[in-house]
Amino acid sequence: MPANKHINKRINKLVVIGVGLIGGSFALALKKARIVKQVVGVGRSRKNLQVALRLGVIDKAETDAARAVVGADLVLIGAPVGQMPGIFARIAPALPKHAVVTDAGSTKQDVIAAARRHLGAHFAQFVPAHPIAGTEHSGAGAAFPELFRDRNLILLPQKETNAAAVRLVRAAWLACGARIVRLEAAEHDEIFGAVSHLPHVVAFALVNQLAQRRDAKRLLGFSGGGLRDTVRIAGSSPEMWRDICIANRAALVPLVDGFISELEAARAALAVGDGESLEHMFRTAQKARARWLLKRK
Predict the structure, then answer these.
(1) Tag placement on the chain: N or C end, fewer CB within 10 Å?
(2) Considering all CA atoms of the chain, what is the largest pairwise distance in Å, rounded to the nearest integer?
């Protein structure tokens, strides 16, 4: 098979720990690019692993992460960030010296600290990363190879990180169609706390508030596109988002406070019938959204 233009040699063994939307899509994209020989999937759910095998997302299923990484060239950890310390500790003694480890976690300071603590000398082979892609669906059945096409991939190599390991991870994500961006870990967590983690908290909270009403069934029966668009991401994995929010709580709590202040301002205007203040709030947001969309074109 010819080598992909982004990578000069095939990955003989890719291990994906957490074969969900992200991990499964990564495996499928590298298979489509014809640069990986074998994909071993690791997970807690045998049912999900069977789905991954049936769909060709992985070639072999394992429930023991340490056994799976023996002989691995590249290991992607796509599990929830709360599980990563345990995974690092489990795989560290079994990793081949040449194996490169990367992750797809939505928080970075905690993941990097856990990797530094548990991987030991192998920390130099760890390349922290975060693909900015996803849907509200989860599991191996949701994976598809085009998920990362033209999406940003954040790389966060540390001062100890081996340059060859960075090149391999960078090349793999380029082969998936991603655009590479570099950030520092603290900057990453602050940015994504605002643009990703806070919106998920808001979406989950809004669904809960509506669902707790006695007339919820009737009320939701009249909902249209506005509600569906606003709460789409509340269909995401609760376990994953629990871990993300707890891990990034230092950045997230002030952001939630700021959002509460905006809601309180809206409530105050509504309570006294202050349409002028309410319209000003809405118009300011409308203009900000228009500027944001213009920059994205």
Answers:
(1) C
(2) 70
| CA distances to 17, 73, 86, 90, 247 from 83, in Å | 11, 22, 6, 11, 11
Q: 3-state DSSP call for residue 169?
A: helix
Q: Tell me: the pLDDT tens digits for 140-166?
A: 999 999 999 999 999 999 999 999 999
Residue 49 · residue 18 · CB < 8 Å: no
- In this structure, whether the domain defined by 11-183 belongs to CATH 3.40.50.720 is answered with yes
pLDDT digits (tens, 9 = 90+) for 27-58: 999 999 999 999 999 998 899 999 999 999 99
What's CA 142's distance to the chain center, in Å? 14
**CATH says 187-296 is which class?**
mainly alpha
